[in-house]
């Protein structure tokens, strides 16, 4: 009997050992869970600290960008103001230059008229020579007095290029575009190589433009740079062609003309306007 009890004793201790092992495991599991929570809390704290640092850094970057943006806006405003001032100065210079050129043209026209008046009229072929009446036919003159010299009639020669240009330009300024166009065409026909032919070709385009004939104006402007590339009006004619082409809806053609203007006349005032126009067309 005692032997049987000795054998049953280990079996009776098994439930107690099982309960002891389960409680120990639970305590270990709780300890692990607590340690995990502590680590998670620490990790969350570190993450929050890092996020706070990132937020502060982003705030600094945003402030810096705002400051840079403000400076850039002020710089752009200053540049626009300077460009506007330069444009006004260019306009004033062009106006003064135009006034000087008009005055010079008027003087040249007046001088040309005086020269033509001083030239004696040619005697037509087969016409009888002009003779003075005999001295005896004049009352109060002795019979042996020399024959008086009679003044010649003023010459009726055609107007020269400067006079014709000034007359046509005056017609254009008065609003008579058709009369001005006819005058400029006649000038170019009679004096294609005169020193005012380039100006006449340009103002022929202005006359066509005033009449509303865009195609003819474009052709006349093109003739300035093609026939008179050294004329001071050549870059202006190219710029006006570009504006006309752009107004007709051909942006690519306008860009090509503006680039041609910058390439051929890089130092002209119109080249500066062309560069600004190209920036606006992008």
Descriptive notes:
The structure is a single chain. The chain has 282 residues and is mostly helical. It has 2 domains: 82 residues; 158 residues, Serine Threonine Protein Phosphatase 5, Tetratricopeptide repeat. The protein contains 8 helices and no strands. Helix 7 packs antiparallel against helix 8. The chain is rod-shaped, with a radius of gyration of 50 Å.
Offer a quick outline of the entry:
The chain has 282 residues and is an all-alpha fold. The chain has 2 domains: 1-82; 83-117 and 159-281, Serine Threonine Protein Phosphatase 5, Tetratricopeptide repeat (Alpha Horseshoe), CATH 1.25.40.10.
Q: Could you list some keywords that capture this structure?
A:
282 residues; 8 helices; single chain; mainly alpha
Q: What is the element layout, followed by pairings?
A:
Elements: H1 2-118, H2 161-173, H3 177-190, H4 197-211, H5 214-227, H6 234-247, H7 251-264, H8 269-281
CATH class of the largest domain: Mainly Alpha
Radius of gyration: 50 Å
One letter per element, helices H and strands E, the order comes to: HHHHHHHH
Instruction: Note the overall shape.
Output: rod-shaped
């Amino acid at each position: 009997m005692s032997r049987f009890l000795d054998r049953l004793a280990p079996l009776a201790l098994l439930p107690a050992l099982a309960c002891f092992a389960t409680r120990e495991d639970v305590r270990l599991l709780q300890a692990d869970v607590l340690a995990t929570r502590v680590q998670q809390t620490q990790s969350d704290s570190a993450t929050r600290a890092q996020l706070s640092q990132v937020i502060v850094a982003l705030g600094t970057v945003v402030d810096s960008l705002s400051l840079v943006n403000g400076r850039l806006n002020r710089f752009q405003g200053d540049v626009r103001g300077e460009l506007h001032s330069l444009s006004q100065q260019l306009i004033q210079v062009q106006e003064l230059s135009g006034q000087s050129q008009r005055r010079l043209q008027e003087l040249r026209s007046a001088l040309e008229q005086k020269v033509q008046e001083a030239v004696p009229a040619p005697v037509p072929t087969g016409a009888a020579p002009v003779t003075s009446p005999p001295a005896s036919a004049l009352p109060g003159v002795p019979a042996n007095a020399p024959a008086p010299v009679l003044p010649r009639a003023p010459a009726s020669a055609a107007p020269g290029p400067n006079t014709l240009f000034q007359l046509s330009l005056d017609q254009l300024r008065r609003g008579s575009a058709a009369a001005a166009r006819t005058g400029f065409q006649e000038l170019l026909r009679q004096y294609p190589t005169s020193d005012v032919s380039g100006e006449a070709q340009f103002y022929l385009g202005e006359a066509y433009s005033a009449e509303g004939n865009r195609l003819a104006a474009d052709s006349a402007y093109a003739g300035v740079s093609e026939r008179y590339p050294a004329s001071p009006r050549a870059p202006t004619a190219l710029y006006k062609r570009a504006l006309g082409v752009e107004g007709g809806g051909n942006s690519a053609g306008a860009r090509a003309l503006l680039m041609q203007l910058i390439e051929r006349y890089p130092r002209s005032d119109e080249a500066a306007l062309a560069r600004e126009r190209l920036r606006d067309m992008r």
